[in-house]
Amino acid sequence: MPQILVEALAKTYRVAERTPGLIGAVRGLVHRQWREVWALADVSFSLEAGELLAFIGPNGAGKSTTIKILSGILRPTSGRVEVDGLVPYEDRIHHVARIGVVFGQRSQLWWDLPVIDGFDLLADIYRVEPARYRRRRDELVAMLRLEPLLDQPVRQLSLGQRMRAEFAAALLHDPTILFLDEPTIGLDAPSKLAVREFVRRLNREQGVTVLLTTHDMHDVEALAERVIVIGHGRLLVDGPFASLRAGVLAERRLYIDFVGPAPMLDIDGVTIKAREGRSLELTFNPGRLPAPKLIAAITSSHAVDDIHVEEPAIEEVIARLYELHDAHEA
Ligand SMILES: Nc1ncnc2c1ncn2[C@@H]1O[C@H](COP(=O)(O)OP(=O)(O)OP(=O)(O)O)[C@@H](O)[C@H]1O
């Protein structure tokens, strides 16, 4: 029996139609027109205990809605959800004792309270037995290097520091499942690395099941073995990251600055995308032509000033997935 089971999940939101202008606004107060927005059309997947799954997709794809339903905040329009045998939105009290949630854009700590007081309050709310709480809190404080921040009010923390405190807050009651909604959003590079390292340890060493949404492909690469791509409220892909990468993500971009004007390159399997002055941008498939081989071929015959390889941005990957999906549906 999987730990998380999602079957034919659908969610519509009812939003008020706005008529422009003052008269429209007044009329809207009297006869409000509603329109339905399909956030999720039909999503099914399951997750075994101890898995780490990344949920990716463009803005508005339905990722946050899925996390909100799984964490019991929202009720779906139709479909079935079970987490550890419970229906999250029907048995919230028991459910929240087993899960931890971190929203990158929202805080569960109290803005004006010192971090440690917020932790104490949460332990009370979750009714964590005092000795167990102190043990878990000290463990998390050490893992997340929170000691120097404990007496500071949350509002004085930097975003990176606050996210570390948020992770501890979400885990004080020792949940076996962690939902993360864009946990690295807005963080600088060292803070992102710290978050990834912490999530990895939590999953690998403590066996916590993690479901994560992100727009950062580096999060996915660093953490997830399995990836679900969601778009238009539907599942587009569910599989190992390695195969997604080898298929849709195969293309790499190479940027080269030459010492002199950019030469005409004619290499099998390489497409020139842009040429300007001394610069050249090209694409290649590393499965067919490994990057070191390509770079060696170019640098052995041309003087190069700078060179770097880039993976396609997540938006490009998603756009490509849409094309494949639409072609398949047609
Ligand atoms: N409370 C709400 N009321 C009305 N519509 C909503 C509400 N929340 C979400 N939506 C709509 O549902 C759709 C899915 O939104 P959701 O926030 O789940 O997407 P997302 O994949 O998390 O996007 P993002 O990457 O931008 O966070 C969007 O069209 C959004 O406008």
TrEMBL record:
Does the record bear rRNA processing in its keywords?
A: no
Q: Which Pfam families match?
A: ABC_tran
Please give the family membership noted in the entry: Belongs to the ABC transporter superfamily.
Q: Which ranges carry the ABC transporter domain?
A: 17-257
Report the PANTHER family cross-referenced here.
Answer: ABC TRANSPORTER ATP-BINDING PROTEIN, ABC-TRANSPORT PROTEIN, ATP-BINDING COMPONENT
Q: Which GO terms describe its molecular function?
A: ATP binding; ATP hydrolysis activity
The entry's protein name is: ABC-2 type transport system ATP-binding protein
Name the domain of life this protein comes from: Bacteria
The protein's organism comes out as Enhydrobacter aerosaccus
Keyword set, alphabetical order = ATP-binding, Nucleotide-binding, Transport
